[in-house]
Design brief:
single chain, mainly beta, 16-stranded antiparallel beta barrel, 53% strand, globular, transmembrane, Porin_dom_sf, Gram_neg_porin_domain, transport
Length: 386
């Protein structure tokens, strides 16, 4: 749906507003899933799991895409300059509930200016540079079922979204550069519950608390794709005392005929405020998309997390963490340009699906049952874009 109005006073000025969205609902089966999250001993780091079983449900997060609706607008200011805005709200299509409690536009909410020569600057809640840079290099393009998005990005919530952010984007032929800075991403960036004085950052006297920044450089041309991107978040569990969460990723892709191959590596390190290492891992992935027909696309992805350190506090003894891996398959059939049906399977070893584990605070909700070391998910669903 589009609404447009001509400019007033300037012949070349135009403005337009578009309402858009996606509704995606899969029916899912998962085995070996506990009803509640495992309990982590804060002193020893030991994980206590509950008994698990099979689960049949409609999946709230979506299968190929997170359900959402939004409003975007642009105004031509002349001389190659445009004003723009985006407001986007996520919701659970199985219940109609807003995805981010208490926030109407929890996915995106920003305004900005775009110049043909100087690039684009935007202000507000928006995606991280890493999320947007790596999207072209992920087999399932960050599909909720089954791609380990949270494990890769380090727990960034709502599609890698950050509050209080400034972002710059520039495009020059096949090159795209992005950089962002958040004045206060908040503890909710990792899905954690903030306490008084810690939530959004931007606290007088504590300028570094909960800040975040990053950048990405991407090349897409002649079938070859290359990317490098960095992301850092400075969480303040105690006001005035910040830890660090750092991620650096490299990725490549190549298109040959009907097949697009892709692979990548992400280095990660989380430290507490005293400089003690809590998480240190090397995340690898590879996969391909194959256009079997004009309507049918097949996707296969493999993900492996080489965990060197995994603690809930730096005083815990060093142990050799188990390394989880996952294999994912998608068959997606387009009924039209806006509607598709899909079948997807995920198998995870040494963790819950999407590499759910203490490393990400069990943020995916794929709680592996007691005595189990693998989990399988099968889903089929319908997606409609408007």
């Amino acid at each position: 749906m589009s609404l447009a109005a001509g400019g007033t006073g300037v012949a070349h000025a135009q403005s337009g507003v578009t309402i858009y969205g996606v509704i995606d609902v899969p029916f899912e089966y998962v085995n070996n899933q506990a009803q509640v999250a495992p309990v982590i001993n804060p002193v020893t780091g030991a994980v206590t799991r509950q008994a698990g079983g099979n689960k049949f449900s409609l999946e709230a997060a979506g299968g190929m895409s997170g359900s959402r609706w939004g409003i975007r607008g642009v105004e031509d200011l002349g001389a190659g300059m445009k004003a723009l805005f985006v407001l986007e709200s996520g919701f659970a299509a199985d219940s109609g509930q807003i995805s981010r409690a208490g926030t109407i536009f929890g996915r995106l909410a920003f305004v900005g200016l775009q110049s043909d020569r100087l690039g684009q600057i935007t202000l507000g809640r928006q995606n991280t540079s890493m999320y947007e840079t790596l999207g072209n290099f992920m087999p399932a393009k960050f599909a909720p079922l089954f791609e380990p998005t949270v494990a890769l990005l380090g727990g960034t919530a709502s599609g890698g979204g950050l509050d209080n952010a400034v972002k710059y984007t520039a495009v020059a032929g096949p090159l795209t550069m992005k950089a962002h800075y958040s004045f206060g991403a908040g503890l909710s960036k990792f899905g954690l519950t903030p306490v008084a004085g810690q939530g959004a950052g931007e606290v007088p006297g504590h300028a570094k608390d909960n800040t975040a920044y990053g950048a990405g450089l991407m090349y897409l041309g002649a079938g070859l794709g290359l990317a490098v991107t960095y992301d850092q978040w400075n969480p303040a569990v105690v006001p005035g005392s910040t830890g660090t969460s750092k991620k650096l990723a490299l990725a490549a892709s190549y298109e040959l005929g009907r097949t697009k191959w892709m692979a990548g590596y992400r280095w990660g390190q989380n430290k507490d405020a005293a400089g003690g290492t809590l998480v240190r891992d090397n995340f690898w992935w590879t996969g391909f998309n194959y256009s079997a027909t004009s309507a049918l696309t097949l996707t296969l992805g493999y993900y492996y997390d080489d965990r060197r350190t995994l603690k809930t506090n730096a005083a815990q003894p060093d142990v050799n963490p188990v390394n989880p891996w996952q294999l994912s398959f998608i068959a997606d059939y387009a009924l039209s340009r806006r509607t598709d049906v899909y079948f997807t399977v995920g198998y995870a070893r040494n963790s819950g699906l999407n590499l759910d584990s203490p490393a990400i605070g069990f943020a995916n909700g794929a709680f592996l049952g007691e005595g189990k070391n693998s989990q399988t998910g099968i889903a089929t669903g319908i997606r409609h874009k408007f």
